[in-house]
Each structure stands twice: as structure tokens, then as C-alpha cells.
Amino acid sequence: MINKRRNALLKLLADRQSATVHQLVETLDASPSTIRRDISWLAARHLIARTRGGASALQQKKRLGGIAGDTFEQNVRCNAERKLAIARRAAAMCRDGETIIINGGTTTFMMADFLAGKSLKIMTNSFMMAERLLRTSQNEVVIPGGRIYRDQNVILSPFDNDATGDQYASKMFMSVYGLSMLGLVESDPMLIRAEKRLIGQAEKLIVLVDSSKFARRAGLILCSLKQVHAVITDTGVSDLSVQWLEQAGIEVIVVPPDSAALQGRGCKPSLCTTQVPS
After folding, report:
1. Of all helices (H) and strands (E), which one includes residue 195?
2. Contact 86, 107 (CB under 8 A)
């Protein structure tokens, strides 16, 4: 209930940019003290800004990608050798003739090159992913109708019954902002809204996260670990993290960084430094 209300608060601010406590009380049907606690909680995690008498949305570039001002291209290069290996392993799980879902994310984006020789029906809410697939493969690509949110790299329909709503997939491959014992974590309410609609359309949810994602604690819960079938990560993941994932009944697939393939593309290994909790 708390997460649902806070997600609704974030969505409202994303739409209006700002709101007073009184407006939030009326819209969310909560007490002023509850709304003020929610504002304090979200502001402490840098998801909104507190204002006199209310709250306002942050600029999109400050909410996305983990570091303020990061672009999609910069995030692709960060931990690239890890993400490339994870993407390769994920693509190897796809079988010709399957229908799969791929969300918008830097690790999932790297799957496109490894899917070039396959024959799949691929649903995605990422316009960048759709463009790459159409340009490099013969896979059938399905995207939802709706508005393009450029900063989040997603297409989101205002209607619940858009063209993709009645299509189901054997697997969904998802990148997320972070992963914790509470579940999958996202930092942007627009991404949560877009991805929740896709999760229920797949038989298995496979999460692609490099080991740095286990260090991220702030954010909003997208879904619980109960909905996750498998996690693909790299050898930097801690034994403790693997342990609590397996205790939750999740298959954990660990792959070594793919530095050789990265150099083969004319790229330099990532210079990003991350700290993973032990």
C-alpha cells in the first residue's frame, strides 16, 4: 500500500511537475502527515525535490541511470565488458520461433547484436532496441502504440488495452536500476509504469544485472523476487547475494566479463569503478 501510494505520488509529479501537500492529500486520499512523510522519504532518496508547502519533480536527467547527468551512451560504456557477457548469455537462452519481451536498458540493448541470426518475435517498449533489431536482424519486432518518452527510452501507451496487451511471451528479459532482497528496484516512476505492464505477459522473468546493481539501495520496488525466474550477472557478484537469490528460489547464472569481445568491437574496457556489498 505504501509503495503504491508513493508510486502514485511520483506519477502525479511527473505529470504536473509540482503539487502542494493539500493537492496531494486530495488526490491520493491520505492524511497531510502521511503525505509529508512520503515527501520526506522520496526526497531523501533523490527521487523528488521538497518545496515550500509541497514537492516537485526532478529533472529527468537527475533521476535516471544512477549518476546525475549520465546519458544512455555513457551508461552503455559503464561496465561494458560485464554487460556484454550477460547479454550474450541471455541471447543464448532464446530459441527460434519463441516470442520474447525485452525492456529498455543498457544491458538488454546489447542483446540485439547476439539476436541477429535468430528467428524470433520480439516485443519491446524501447524504441532504440526496436530500431537496432530492425536494422541488424530479420526478427519480427512488436512495439506498443503511444507516447515516446525520450529520456527513459520507452514507449508508453495511455491505454491499458493497446495492441501488445493480448500478446504473451515465453520469456521476458529485463534490465533494472538495482536488485535487493525486497525485489527489483527502479528509480523512475515512468519506467515502473511501463515495465509492470510487460511483466505479466511473460511466463518467465529473466533479470540482467551486472554486479554493481546489487550495491544500489535507493529507489522504488518494481516487483518482488517471487516474480523472478532467473538472474544473469557477472563474477563480481558476492557469495552473499547469490545465496539470498537462491534461497528465494531464483536460478543464478554467473558469467565472466567479455573483454575480448569488447576489444573486438574497437571499444576499451570500462573505466567505471563500483563497490559491491559483501
Report:
1. helix 189-199
2. yes
Query: Is residue 98's pLDDT more than 50?
Result: yes
Name, in order, each residue with C-beta under 8 angstroms of 258's C-beta and a sequence gap of 6 or more: 81, 82, 84, 85, 88
Query: Measured between alpha carbons, how far is 44 from 41 in angstroms, rounded to an integer?
Result: 5
pLDDT of 67 reads 36
Contact 125, 133 (CB under 8 A): no
61 backbone φψ class: left, alpha, beta (φ>0; ψ -120 to 50): alpha
pLDDT tops 90 at residue 24: yes
Half-sphere exposure at residue 213, Cβ-oriented, CA atoms within 13 angstroms: 31
pLDDT given for residue 99 in this prediction: 96
pLDDT digits (tens, 9 = 90+) for 130-157: 999 999 999 999 988 878 877 777 787 6
Q: What domains are defined for the chain? A: 2-58 (1.10.10.10), 72-264 (3.40.50.1360)
Cα–Cα distances (Å) from 166 to 101, 147, 187, 201, 205, in that order, read: 13, 19, 28, 8, 18
Q: Distance between CA atoms of 90 and 84, rounded to whole angstroms?
A: 10
DSSP string, 225-244: GGG--EEEEETTS-HHHHHH
> 189 is written with which cell numbers?
516512476
The CA distance from 172 to 32, in Å, is 40
Helix (H) or strand (E) holding 127: helix 127-136
Mean pLDDT, the chain, rounded, equals 82
Give tens-digit pLDDT for 48-93: 888 989 999 875 444 433 333 356 666 666 778 999 999 999 999 9
